[in-house]
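Please think about what follows:
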Amino acid sequence: MNKINQEISKIKKELYLEESIKYFDTIGFKDSKINEISKALDTSVGTIYNIFNSKEELYLEYLIYKLRKFLHNIEKEKTEDPYANLCVYLKYKYEFFIYINENESKPITNDPYFFHKLDIAKHPIVDHIYDYLEEQFKLMIDEPYISYRHLAILFKKFSDGFIESYILEAYETQNIVDHTLTMFLNGLLRKNN
């Protein structure tokens, strides 16, 4: 394939992805159908399969787009305070998936399998998110024997659990950021000394 055709394919892929974002934001992965995506994009199913090998590949590109936007937002608001940075991380993460208050727009997914799909994405953007979290924990906790990467992974999975739980059964989310950080940093059960 010559360079011009490669550029045309890249532009087509970006345009189709841009339009499919609106569809996935409304429908999610579980309830989406490739023929409905083709109608929403005003194209044929074959054209979509020429650009993306499967609905899963298209959705994976959607997830990567969302993660880039998410990372941009948390980096933009980054401060010298690691606790505040973790609050910003949770705020942006939760507002994508959970109604934080009634005035906000609908979350992007009603799909409890969302994070399982996300976890199969071996994309550098996921490493960047772990790097961000790892950096915050290094600033917060001075412990020579701790694996900050491990702590970052646990924290991401812990907050993923809040979202999956909400998707399965909605609950009060007014103080969810503080509640998540308190539970993670202090533990659910504390012994009194």
Notes: Residues 101-105 have pLDDT under 50 and may be disordered.
